[in-house]
Amino acid sequence: MRKPNDITLKDAITKMLSVYRLRGKYDETGVVAHWPELMGTAVANRTTQIYVSQKKLFVRIESSVIKNELLMVRTGIIQKLNERAGSEVITEIVFL
User: Which pLDDT band, with edges at 50, 70 and 90, does 94 fall under?
Assistant: First the structure.
């Protein structure tokens, strides 16, 4: 039986993230964690470094061919990543 002041675990975590102002970092970490899932194994295997700084996603890719292909579809990648996160986490992608 639930008591009147009980909340779900999801609501508690969401509230904690907003109170401690950790929502942005949490979403950025989610983007980095979901990179292989969203981009596929071919791109993920050639990605050596990925991090987020000031709403910019920095990705180091070994293959110049894949890097050029990703440069052409940059806006689509940004949209996919932001849809997955549920908010605007990434505004720009820099391929290193």
Answer: very high
50 phi/psi in degrees, rounded to 5? -150, 130
Maximum pairwise Cα distance, the chain = 59
Return the beta strands (E) in the chain as ranges: 47-53, 56-61, 92-95
CA distance 63 to 75: 20
Full-model pTM? 0.82
The Cα 56–Cα 52 span in angstroms is 6
CA gap 85, 27 in Å, rounded: 6
Beta bridge partners of 94: 58
Distance (Å, rounded) from C-alpha 54 to C-alpha 32?
14
User: What's the mean pLDDT in 70-85?
Assistant: 93
Cβ atoms of residues 57 and 27 within 8 Å: no
Decide: helix, strand or coil at residue 50: strand
